[in-house]
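Quick illustration for those who missed Monday's session on complexes.
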Amino acid sequence: MSDWNPELYMKFRSERTQPSIDLISRIDDINPKSILDVGCGPGNSTQVLANRWPEANISGIDNSESMIAKAAQDYPRQEWQVADAATYCPGKEFDLVFSNAVIQWIPNHANLLARFHNWVSEKGALAIQMPQFWDMPLGKIIRKTGDDARWKDRTGDVVNLFTIHDYVFYYDQLARLFPRIDIWQTDYMHVLENHEAIIEMMRSTGLKPYLDRLDSEADQKEFEERVLKGIKTAYPKQTNGKVILPFKRMFIVGYK
Ligand SMILES: C[S@@+](CC[C@H](N)C(=O)[O-])C[C@H]1O[C@@H](n2cnc3c(N)ncnc32)[C@H](O)[C@@H]1O
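Prediction with S-adenosylmethionine bound:
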């Protein structure tokens, strides 16, 4: 996949950062001195951590060079590192390992969660949020479009780039590792100006690997137009012309 575009990603800063605010506000019983933000992106989730625990030593890792460059530019006082969470070895423990909207991009979650658990100090916590993308009409429309014979040879495998299980799986994995677990789901009602805004929002995330695999701008435009058509049917306009996109997200906090 081509590198992430931090500016495009942050166009929807509020929608993208609210889940971090909510996840962090639910974490109790710990006062972390050291925190690792896994898949920190441009540093937006990391700043929410810094606001809650200003004394903590906070590091962010991300395997995107452009995201880390943006984070380092905007927040030079924190520690940033380009690293792949699937292979990263921190060499030390953290009182809080945090990851917002990231693990769906990483395979083998049984293994990944066990590794995250190893990075958490005694009495520390692991906090994760991930979208339940395929449960949503939006995810289904994008997936169906990618499966169309028109470009299936190029986009048919994109679905395999994402690893998303349901709460049954995550609870079972984490209950083996953590004595206490909080787990919940929320539908965020994103109020957007129009249907095109949904495409714009997805262009830097869920649509990105599909668009990356298409050879020409004409193909990319056609792909987006197909998705837009489906979106217009699935998400009706409100009486004031705006569009509500319910976005389903799952949250888990495991306490050691
Ligand atoms: C949707 S963004 C989330 C950014 C930020 N945490 C937030 O809350 O907005 C997903 C981030 O995960 C990063 N990412 C994806 N796979 C990764 C991996 N294997 N290791 C580290 N970071 C990864 C991407 O580069 C991207 O910055």
